[in-house]
Amino acid sequence: MMVRFLLGEDKYVRFLIHSTVDERFVIKEANWRLLLNGKEESSGMCDVEQKDDSWEISSKISPMRVSSYYKLELKVKIRDEIIMHREDVEVR
Questions:
Q1: Is residue 56 within 8 Å of residue 63, measured between CB atoms?
Q2: Cα distances (Å, whole numbers) of residue 42 to 64, 71, 73, 87
Q3: What CA–CA distance (Å, rounded) separates 42 from 62?
Q4: What span, in angstroms and rounded, lies between the C-alpha atoms of 32 and 30?
Q5: Which residues, including other chains, have CB under 8 Å from residue 70's CB and lie 6 or more apart?
Q6: Helices marked H in 5-76 — which ranges?
Q7: 89: buried, middle or exposed (CB in 10 Å: 19+, 13-18, 0-12)?
Q8: How far is 5 from 30, CA to CA, in rounded Å?
Q9: Residue 52's closest CA among 80, 16, 13?
Q10: Cα–Cα distance between 89 and 87 in angstroms, integer?
Q11: Tally of CB atoms within 10 A around 25
């Protein structure tokens, strides 16, 4: 999946997290980093909201350069695990 922005946009990126084996869980913490060519441009804490049997995590990002080399990294703490996810971000 590729997240697309136009230069100057400041918007939320949302992800829905759910159990694949129908276990209940709580997200203790979630944060994000926006990387350009491997260097951190911005970072912050995600907003976390329970949605029925799943959780929505969102981050408001605003890439500052035109590039197809952005990566949005998410780090989510659930119980004693750390789950990481990475999405490509393209800015035109």
A1: no
A2: 10, 11, 11, 15
A3: 9
A4: 7
A5: 34, 35, 36, 41, 63, 88, 89, 90, 91
A6: none
A7: buried
A8: 22
A9: 16
A10: 6
A11: 14
* End-to-end Cα, the chain, rounded Å: 16
User: Where do we find the tokens 């997290």?
Assistant: 17
Q: Tens place of pLDDT for every residue, the chain, 92 residues? A: 899 999 999 999 999 999 989 889 999 999 999 999 999 999 999 999 999 889 999 999 999 999 999 999 999 999 899 999 999 999 99
What are the residues whose beta carbons fall under 8 Å from the beta carbon of 20, sequence distance 6 or more?
A: none
